[in-house]
Predict the 3D structure of the following.
Amino acid sequence: MSAHDPAIVELLKGLPKMDREPKVRDDELFAVAQIVSALPTVRFPIKSADELISQIGKGRVEILGVKLDATRLARRMPANLFPVKSLPEFVEKTAAVLRRNRRLARLGREVDELTRQLSDVHFPIASAEALLKEAGPEKKYIYRGRTFRPNEWIDRIPARFYPIRSPLDLKAKVGALTIRAGL
């Protein structure tokens, strides 16, 4: 395995074992791993979206804290994604689909940059007050091209955001909040 951000290494441990490492960037791997970890175990090869739907079943899946209809999600996958021979290939093809959606691809990099700015924060963080103390209420941060101070946005974070258990948990929750806000 190549060198990855420690949060990515932690995330990979939660995925099914792969016979090879997918050829994608860490930010893409982060996004796709959220999708893969939300799906029930699937068997490869998968010949079509319909076959994927029959394997994952109907209902809702939660990806980055956002509940999505599994059938609609599978139907949105382009026909050229299939067939998929293995999990690493699924990761690569799904990353390519995400790459086409520039806003989601950019989101991964932006969340990474914000978490780098918060690298001095100690985990777990139990509450908004604890996050404000750790981040520094008046310290300036840049997210999505805007400068802000934690005391300006802390009240926008819902209580269910806490506790924040790790840097990876922070990345997932910031990504989810951003998606819910409409990217």
User: Anything to note?
Assistant: The beta strands are 60-63, 66-69, 141-143, 146-148. The chain has nine helices and four strands. The first helix runs from residue 6 to 13.
